[in-house]
Specification:
Blueprint lengths: L4 E2 L2 E2 L14 H28 L1 H4 L11 H21 L3 H19 L5 H20 L6 H9 L14
Antiparallel strand pairs: 1-2
Helix pairs in contact: 1-3, 1-5, 3-4, 4-5
Length: about 160
């Protein structure tokens, strides 16, 4: 039996859990604040510097995955800049949260292994925030929810079941 609805809301590209697409204002506002603050800080404080100084950093960038310094830096930029912007705006927010979570996990568990806790603390918080967005979704105030609601593909009120239009 295929489940077409979840908590009365039709499944779509931007909705997977009842929490993320609930009509409760506090939950959606909390998701907005978490996404916006964590994503904007990650993009501005970590990603932009890598984008802006790409050529200067490419030779000395850590290569924890053994793919080469250039590709490791590109992967870090994908997570710390592009993924963070996607997460902050809610445009493909879960995918952006996945990129941020992957980049921060590599940084935490490979690059910064053995460093003191106070140096790893911000990365742990970015990792936790991106995992929360990945698991809960972006909420009603994400660009995905707004776009899909306007196109009638989801993110808004549940449409009537088939045959009862």
């Amino acid at each position: 039996m295929k489940i077409d609805r979840f908590f009365g809301v039709r499944r779509g590209l931007c909705e997977c859990t009842g929490v993320a697409m609930s009509k409760e204002l506090p939950t959606n506002f909390a998701l907005l604040v978490l996404r916006a603050v964590a994503g904007a800080n990650m993009a501005w404080l970590h990603g932009w510097d890598k984008v802006h100084h790409f050529s200067a950093r490419v030779g000395s960038f850590p290569d924890p995955l053994g793919m080469g310094h250039k590709y490791a830096l590109i992967l870090a930029i994908a997570g710390e800049f592009a993924g963070a912007i996607m997460m902050a705006t809610g445009f493909l927010g879960r995918f952006g949260a996945f990129l941020v979570a992957f980049a921060t996990a590599v940084t935490l568990f490979s690059v910064m292994r053995g460093t003191p806790w106070h140096e790893r603390e911000p990365w742990t918080l970015y990792f936790a925030a991106s995992l929360a967005i990945l698991l809960l979704g972006c909420g009603r105030f994400a660009l995905d929810a707004i776009v899909w609601k306007k196109s009638g593909k989801g993110g808004g009120k549940a449409s009537p079941p088939p045959g009862k239009k």
